[in-house]
Amino acid sequence: MKPIVIVGPTASGKTELSFQLARTFQGEIISADSRQIYKYLNAGTAKPPGQWVPTSSGEEYLSDAIPVHLVDFLDPNHSFNVGEYRRLSQSASEKIKARNKRLIMCGGTGLYIQAFWNGMDPLPLGNPAFRQKLEQAARENGTEKLHRKLVRVDPEAASKIHPRNIQRLIRALEVYELSGKPISSYWSKNIFK
Known about the structure:
193 residues; alpha/beta; Histone, subunit A; 2 domains; 48% helix
């Protein structure tokens, strides 16, 4: 069964379309949205309203009786990266196939979608102490200083990451610190083909 992928900008009707298609083609939805993964963040994320329902294999999130994977499962104070998304989305895909349902991927986080379909080199795991150090530096000196540091070590990533996007700035600097390679080198080999 061929999968369906729905991408587009915020508030363009992706979620509504994904539910129409799930009903029509007996599908299950995998969210590719970097904000809908978090619990409690319903306003501003367009997370489909639903509830966790016990099943024989654990729990699953149902919205309008349709399983929606990778939504509402992570506390907002936990970090999450594209490698974790790839692992969890691949697992969800296997469950969908095992149930003989159509996979419908829906979202606007292009990096998640590309990682799911094209794979990627495994990024280094996070380093909480290093992240805290950079978060403190951002609080004291602003994110622009972190962005200038990123310009020095990875100009390509710096051109794509907004100077005030602290989460992505820190992750890019963290990858460089841990691997010695710019995060953009992972993108160019695997993600943005």
